[in-house]
Design goal:
Strand order of the largest sheet: 1-2-3-5-4-6-7-13-14
Distance between the termini: 50 Å
Structural class: alpha/beta
Strand content: 5-15%
Number of strands: 16
Helix content: 40-55%
Radius of gyration: 30 Å
Length: 543
């Protein structure tokens, strides 16, 4: 009933908030007679504050239309790459008509940012995305408001979150060969689980994992968030904070943890700070300090916009992460999309570098909670692990604001770049033409000579006679002259990748090394580079 009462109260307040907005404009507009009254400025500020306290805050837009890359403006096109029932994989496509900038953009690392599903929208990471777009190809998980998801789309569990992350990682690996993953706050736990399961199956894992301010081990330096979860039982949460969505939403009847309850909890953690902030906003309006007032609006437009979470996901997160500590105890089992139960084993991760970031003044994920990931990922060598504690930074400071841009981001960028594998197509070699004992320079000479003969055999006639030996004819090698017809019963020479050349001609696919079967660069390389098609030429200006 609480959700229905809240919606009824919000509907009743809507006319008053509209009136407050109109009154604020009447007292501030120079053409209005009311603006000439002695208290006009105070009346306008008071009505404006009432409007903002009572209005309904919808999901904000990312609003990133361009970024500056080395002094060159790069246009940003936001689009949905994958659409799941409870999440969208959103891409920020970059465009430039500057050749040097475009070349740089095409070679930059690919990053998947996993945004938190803990009450706020993914737009909370707007500053994170905008900063990273200067040096990376950026994708982000944009979680949907559960009250807008029809019951016909099923439930959403913590296991589904983990499976979503794996699916998004595989998608980027299929497009680019591999990627880097950044998780902020709550998703550090499911991201670690997702990469662990991929490693246990022998799948290719991301090049790096950057985990920022997350409750990997919520037992360390517990905060008020941790204490609430441990002081109440699972049944208490299920009976007191779970409600059904009212009838006026697409997800009517769905069991959810309402966003307005989460927002109330956020405000209750620092009520004095929020009260002071709103009073300062009132004074800024009176003084005419438009810059400070606008900064307040931008922050609270984001902070006050909250979403509902599916009840199963919320309750399972409380129990798994904050009550039973299943990740650190090694007792967490995840159900795959095919129904198979798999144990989460972070120690199986061996080829993914790990970077953890904590804020010195973080009041949501306490000191040491994120750093605990290093102890769990024992399979990662010490030199591939790094930790940073941002001095003077709170929870939001490690991914947004000045400390993020000046302190945290430079180290994140350097860490990703140092582990970014070059995405280069496999070189072409001539089958049966080069013995395995050839040195690298000799092999390179034969590749170049054979490629020249294959793509331009007519160039031989343009060689000056002074450089030829007319007295003795040079024997034509069938291995280096594709233009010569092969004798009957023999296979003509063809261009292949190194893995094909190393494999027996009659070997079945099952005996080809697994790395060769899964290497995206090898699978995608064509035997002979073809001229770019119209579509490829049109895409030359994109990155």
């Amino acid at each position: 009933m609480l959700y229905h009462i809240y919606e009824t109260q919000r509907s009743l307040m809507e006319p008053f908030t509209d009136f407050a907005q109109a009154a604020a404009k009447l007292y501030s507009n120079p053409l209005s007679p009311l603006s000439q009254s002695p208290l006009a400025q105070r009346m306008s500020a008071g009505y404006d504050l009432l409007y903002r306290l009572g209005k309904d805050y919808e999901k904000p837009a990312f609003g990133i239309t361009s970024v500056d890359v080395d002094g060159v403006g790069v246009a940003i096109h936001e689009r949905i790459e994958m659409d799941k029932p409870f999440c969208e994989l959103r891409r920020f496509k970059r465009f430039s008509d500057d050749p040097a900038t475009l070349t740089k953009l095409k070679t930059q690392p690919v990053v998947l940012i996993v945004a938190p599903l803990s009450g706020h929208y993914a737009t909370l990471l707007r500053d994170t995305v905008r900063t990273m777009l200067k040096d990376h190809k950026v994708y982000i998980t944009d979680w949907k408001n559960a009250r807008l998801v029809p019951l016909s789309d099923g439930e959403f569990h913590l296991d589904d979150y983990v499976n979503y992350v794996q699916e998004f990682i595989r998608h980027l690996q299929g497009v680019y060969g591999n990627c880097h993953v950044i998780s902020v706050c709550q998703p550090t736990v499911p991201v670690l689980a997702a990469v662990s399961l991929m490693a246990s199956r022998g799948e290719t894992t991301p090049l790096t994992m950057t985990m920022m301010g997350g409750p990997i081990d919520a037992r360390k330096s517990p905060t008020s968030v941790n204490n609430l979860a441990t002081n109440r039982s699972y049944e208490w949460f299920e009976n007191n904070v779970i409600y059904r969505v009212p009838e006026n939403f697409p997800g009517a009847g769905r069991r959810v943890y309402p966003g307005f309850l989460q927002y109330t909890g956020f405000v209750a953690m620092n009520p004095d700070r929020h009260a002071t902030s709103h009073y300062d906003y009132f004074k800024d309006l009176i003084k005419g300090d438009d810059a400070s007032a606008e900064a307040h609006r931008k922050f609270y437009d984001e902070y006050n916009a909250v979403l509902d979470m599916d009840a199963d996901y919320y309750l399972e997160t409380i129990k798994t992460v904050f009550q039973d500590y299943k990740l650190v105890h090694g007792t967490w089992d995840v159900r795959s999309p095919k129904g198979k139960i798999e144990r989460v084993r972070p120690q199986d991760i061996k080829t993914t570098a790990l970077f953890t970031v904590e804020g010195e003044l973080d009041d949501i994920s306490g000191s040491g909670q994120t750093k605990a990931a290093h102890g769990l990922c024992s399979g990662i060598t010490h030199k591939e692990q790094k930790h940073l504690e941002a001095k003077g930074a709170g929870h939001y400071g490690i991914f947004s604001g000045r400390r993020w841009r000046d302190v945290v981001y430079p180290q994140v960028r350097a860490f990703i770049l140092s582990h970014d594998a070059p995405r280069i197509k496999a070189p072409l070699v001539l089958q049966n033409a080069a013995p395995a004992t050839l040195s690298a320079p000799a092999m390179a000479e034969k590749i170049v000579a054979a490629k020249d003969a294959a793509v331009a055999p007519s160039k031989a006639s343009t060689v000056k006679k002074a450089t030829a030996k007319p007295a003795a004819k040079q024997p034509v090698s069938k291995a280096t002259a594709p233009s010569v017809r092969a004798p009957a019963g023999k296979v003509a020479t063809r261009w292949v990748t190194p893995d094909e050349a190393a494999a027996p001609a009659t070997a079945p696919a099952a005996v080809i090394p697994k790395a060769a079967q899964t290497a995206p660069a090898v699978a995608a390389a064509s035997p002979v580079p073809a001229a770019p098609s119209g579509k490829r030429r049109a895409a030359a200006g994109k990155a």
